[in-house]
Every structure is written in structure tokens, then in C-alpha cells.
Amino acid sequence: MKKLTVACAQQQMRLFDSLESYRKELNRFLYMARAKGAQLIIFPGLAGVMAAAPMVEGFRINLLKQADGRRRKQRSLWTRTRGALAGGTAALLGADFRKAFGQLLQTDPASLLATYETTFGELARAYDITIVGGSAYLPDPAGVIRHRATVFGPDGTVLGRHSKMALAAEDEGLAVPGDVWTVVNTPAGRLGILLGEEALYPEAGRVLAYQGADLLVTLAAADSEALAAYVRQATIAQAQENRCFALTSFLVGKNYLAPDEAVGKTFVGKSGIYAPLEMTPRYSGVLVEIGTASSEGLLTAELDRDALRALWQSGVEPVRSRMPVGLFAKYLPALYSSQRTLAEAWPDPESIPAPLPAAPPPPLVLPTPIEPPAHPVLAEASDAPSADEQAGAGLLTPEMSLDETAEGDETGWDVD
Questions:
Q1: In 10 A of CB 287, how many CB atoms?
Q2: Nearest alpha carbon to residue 135 among 153, 154, 151
Q3: How far apart are CA 196 and CA 44, in angstroms?
Q4: Domain map (residue ranges) of the chain
Q5: Number of helices and strands (H, E) in the chain?
Q6: pLDDT for position 98
Q7: Beta-strand (E) ranges in 113-261?
Q8: For 119-142, how does the pLDDT look when each residue is reduced to its tens digit (9 = 90+)?
Q9: In this structure, which topology does domain 3-325+371-413 adopt according to CATH?
């Protein structure tokens, strides 16, 4: 395919009473993505954890679910009142989804994995679309819990996985870091997956680009505006540095996985679809971006891969072909084999760092280059869907109109 339509879901963290409720939530986004002709959709970081909510049993967690229901306007007065009381009682009793979820990971991780893969696999097959499922804490084949994202093909099969290597505060005590970056080959192209803070490191995107990735996908769950801004800016930079497309999908809403829920942290972020500067309006690097950092929405855009490949050869500065690799090869092996961070190399700006080791590091083995499929790159954001489309998807209530959706070329809707 010379042109590819992609979709990014900006999803709210919720505690669902049943797996069917969670599936309906995913259907909202998939319905809109299919209506816009998307061949690929990505869900946010940690969004896959919501599949575990129905599995986490106990009185304290039931109280948390009732408190979450209070935030939804369509609930009855009695439900909202009961939720308010439950929220206070849960706080007094120390109700903690994170702790209960951690117990589930210790006692029955296999059931969680089966639920996650069955849910996304069936939906991918039903909508005939490639899905990058929201990341979750799942066991690897050896039974080790990783923070990982899984890619599902249009036939529902698992095409690949990525385990997060740069763990965040939410990950500590729940997961072990991964140890490899690999590109996932899909009908929509060669995907390089980054989870949250991994996008902050230019080396991560470059490793994936060397493996043939032409689409960098970042799944994020940022509980501060600063971190969300870092991830956004880093993703735009990754697209420019590697001359590829990039997508970022943010989780929003209450952070039920915070080590201390009393802090009341929330996830924020503005999901977006990005491209090299020359392919975007006003050289911004942004093809389309959601208009709010706290509400749900869906972005779609069309990528033109032919235009991207032309840019590789005849751009203003074709860095992919003019990289001074000999110079980099002279410095980078010693720098990275020293196993020192920048802070360790320069603890004091006025000090002189210790000399670098002379021994070269072990060679990096790269895969055999594969000619990328002749797919097009996206240069034009899709138009906003009609009110009929949104109503059909359950994205608009009878009282809402398209004028109330988030700003920009995207489908957005307010959340409670």
C-alpha cells in the first residue's frame, strides 16, 4: 500500500466491572478507526491493565469501582451518592488497586495474559485491523513479569511484543526490565515500539531505525505535564532524526497504579501523529495532534511512504545517507562500553572525567537489511467524523455536538 491511514487512541484509565464493559470501551475507538479507513490503531501505555480490573476481586476494590462510577454524569443520583461514600470508605480502609493488582500478578499471571491476548486478538480479527494493544504487566515465556506491549495482526494473531527497558515509578515492584529492541513486521509496515520514557533516549529510536522501522510508535502514561511534554517533544525529534513517521498515544485520567493513591495523581498527555519537518505544516513536525491533555479522543492521519522515501534521497539534509558513521564509530563504542551515564561521566561541570576504556565493546549484530514494502507516507490529517458517525460509535451523547469535540483534526470527547 502506498498510503497508510493510522489511528491513535487517547484513552481514559477506568476500573471496569466486567470484561464485556472493557470490550465495549475498546469498540468505541475501533468503530471510529474503521470508519476513517485506518489499517493500524495504537492504544496507550498501561491501557491494557484495565483488562485486569474485572479480575481483581475483594471488598476494597469493589469500593474503588463504585467511587469510579461516581465520576460519570449519566449515573443516577443514588449511584453517585453511593460512589461518594464508597470513595471515602475506600480511602479510610486503604483500598489500593495497585496492591490488589500486584497480588493478581503473583498468583495468576497466566489468566491475565490469556484475557489480554484473547480480547485484543478477537477485536483485531473482528475489525480486520492491526492493533498495538495498550501495554500491561504480563508474563513472558519464562514467567517473568514485564511491562510489555503486544501487536496483533488483522487475523488476530500475535505479530510481536516489546518489553519496556527504561522502567518508571509505576513499574517498580511490578515488572522486570526487558533487554532487547526489535522491529515488528506488520501489514501496516515495520513498527518500532517505545514505551513511555524510552522515547526520551535518541539511541532507542536509532537502533530501531537501523533495524528497518519506518514507523516509531510510543505508548505513554505520564502522570505529570512535564513528563508528557518531554515524551511529546522527544517523539517529534525521533521522527526528524530518523526521517520516519511517529505516533504517540497517551493514557489520561486517574492514576490507579500510583504507589500512593492518596497523592491523587492523574495521567495527562496530548496524543499525536508526527512526520519529518518537511512533510508537515509550517515545519512543525506535527501532522495532527489532539487538542486537550485530559480528555479522550481519536486521531487519524494518512501517511505517504513514497513521499517519505523521496525525502530520504533528496531532502534538505538527507541524514540517513550522509551520517558520518566513521566518526561515530570512533567515539560511541568507548563511550557506551564505559557503562557510565552522563551524570557519572560529568558529576561536576568543572571536573575532568576519568579517561574512557581503550577496549572496544562487543560488536553489535544487526539483522539482514530488508527492503521496506512500497507503502506511502502520510501527509494529510483526516477530516473530523460526522455527528452520525460519532453517534453510531457511542462517542457522542444526544446533548453533544461536533463543536464540543477536542480541537484539531481529530475525534475528541470530554470525559468525567
A1: 28
A2: 151
A3: 9
A4: 3-325+371-413
A5: 12, 16
A6: 86
A7: 130-132, 136-139, 145-152, 158-163, 184-186, 189-195, 215-220, 245-254
A8: 999 999 999 999 999 999 999 999
A9: Nitrilase/N-carbamoyl-D-aminoacid amidohydrolase (3.60.110)
